[in-house]
Amino acid sequence: MPGLGAQELNNAGQESRGLRPSPAPWLWLSGVTLAVGLLAGGAVAVVAFYLARYGPAGNGWSFRGNGALAAFALVPALLTAGWTALVLRARSYRSWHLLGLGAGLVGTLLAAADAALLPVFGSSADRIAGPILLLGLLAWTVAAPILASKIAAGAKSAGQSTGSAHLVAGVVWFVAMTIGLMVGEQVIPAGS
What we know:
A two-stranded antiparallel sheet has the order 1-2. The protein is flat and about 55 Å long. Residues 8-18 have low confidence and may be disordered. It is mainly α. The N and C termini lie far apart (64 Å). Helices cover 70% and strands 2% of the residues.
């Protein structure tokens, strides 16, 4: 059929065989992104709760109480993981999920290094290197998806979500994580 794209041909072929076309791929992508984002945001709230209640403490420092704010440095690390994975998936990169997790791991290591400064090296190291590590974490949150967009694209498969669907999923990822974090903080507030 002239002028039809791969998805239209696939749907036309399914209809001719008596099969219904599959639901819009963007709907599935957004739904999965929503669910995982809510869980990820809720997980940060749980980590903050446990740090506030049972976190380690030492001479002049503590992760209890306000020290549990260190858990919220996981948010940019998780955003990095999701956004990088979505960029790679949009480019049909075969190992998109692994590289997304790897980008998130780099962010988590930056967050953990920042959290470890005070107990390991003291307050002067925390004052000097802490802001640098947190700025590095924020820069990585932007840089990782941009770097992922430079990786060679794989072959597109029929029925794959479009780039705009992945862009919508990126917004859903941010909103879902925020909602998961807020709901988690309401259910088990770290400060109580």
